[in-house]
Structure to design on (323 residues):
């Protein structure tokens, strides 16, 4: 990516910030969109804030995208989104406008590009009869979040069909790592374990796959740099399932936690999807990409990062709290 000009929407988000850091380390000239031009609101980018071109814009408001009109980038990574599946049922309009309308606005803003990577979500698969999920399966999204994400895919495909534009769509599967919000399952479990808080779960027989964030960044860069941009949707994931109950006990052990585990204390959700994992063969075949960091390695690295996080955010004598 050296000497490339890159735009990352949602660059201060969890995956976006890891991508931005990697791009800067590779010598790219990086522009990011953020809702507020404030380092306090975008702390994930604090270490390289002055090395970035910051564009304050809310993609839901096409007027705020006028500042991008006529600007050109070698690559655009579109990650900006409403990003909580459960809360999207409470914030339906925001979820749909952030994931669907914002994508259309970005395409219609007048920004120019040589390659565009739309970052969708594994959630668009929703209800499926067979596992692992293959890209040829008909999506059946089950939340306002995933409906909005799928609409963004469809609009991306429309623009590619209309003008032959170099647009790729990828579906990352569950991602974890440093800087992730505690609202996601792995950081929530780690923080509770490190703080000694009791953990209540369902029986945890449902399975999911989890991918370390640096693997996902590798996958996104593979899409952006491959010789010919893929026209097919591509899963970005490992294809290896783990039962949630096993994930809980693994994290509890890695944290050497005193938390009491209450597995089975919560009822199973009535619309539970029991198995979710991807078929990663298309990414392997088209991109020559596969994950390099295992679940075990990723969890160890994430636990160590959250040890420092917990000291900063929960200890009264930490530099952050003294500030």
């Amino acid at each position: 990516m050296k000497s490339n000009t890159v735009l990352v929407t949602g660059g201060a988000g969890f995956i976006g910030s890891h991508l931005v850091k990697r791009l800067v380390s590779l010598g790219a000239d990086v522009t990011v969109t953020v809702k507020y031009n404030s380092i306090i609101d975008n702390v994930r980018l604090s270490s390289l804030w002055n090395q970035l071109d910051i564009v304050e814009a809310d993609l839901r408001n096409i007027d705020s995208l006028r500042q991008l009109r006529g600007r050109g980038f070698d690559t655009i990574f579109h990650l900006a989104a409403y990003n909580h599946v459960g809360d999207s049922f409470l914030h339906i309009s925001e979820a749909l406008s952030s994931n669907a309308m914002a994508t259309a606005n970005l395409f219609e803003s007048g920004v120019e590009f040589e390659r565009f990577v739309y970052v969708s979500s594994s959630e668009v698969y929703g209800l499926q009869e067979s596992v692992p999920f293959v890209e040829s399966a008909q999506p059946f999204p089950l939340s306002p979040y995933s409906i909005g994400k799928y609409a963004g895919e469809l609009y991306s495909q429309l623009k590619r069909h209309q003008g032959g534009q170099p647009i790729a769509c990828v579906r990352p599967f569950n991602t974890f790592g440093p800087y992730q919000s505690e609202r996601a399952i792995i950081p929530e479990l780690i923080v509770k374990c490190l703080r000694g808080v009791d953990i209540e779960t369902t029986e945890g027989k449902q399975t999911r796959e989890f991918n370390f964030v640096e693997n996902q960044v590798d996958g996104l860069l593979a899409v952006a740099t491959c010789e010919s941009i893929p026209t097919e949707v591509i899963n970005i994931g490992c294809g290896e399932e783990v039962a949630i109950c096993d994930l809980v006990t693994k994290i509890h052990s890695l944290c050497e936690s005193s938390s009491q585990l209450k597995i089975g204390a919560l009822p199973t959700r009535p619309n539970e999807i029991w198995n979710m994992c991807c078929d990663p063969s298309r990414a392997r075949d088209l991109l020559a990409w596969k994950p390099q960091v295992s679940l075990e390695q990723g969890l160890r690295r994430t636990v160590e990062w959250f040890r420092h996080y917990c000291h900063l955010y929960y200890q009264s004598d930490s530099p952050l709290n003294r500030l």
Notes: The chain has a mean pLDDT of 93.
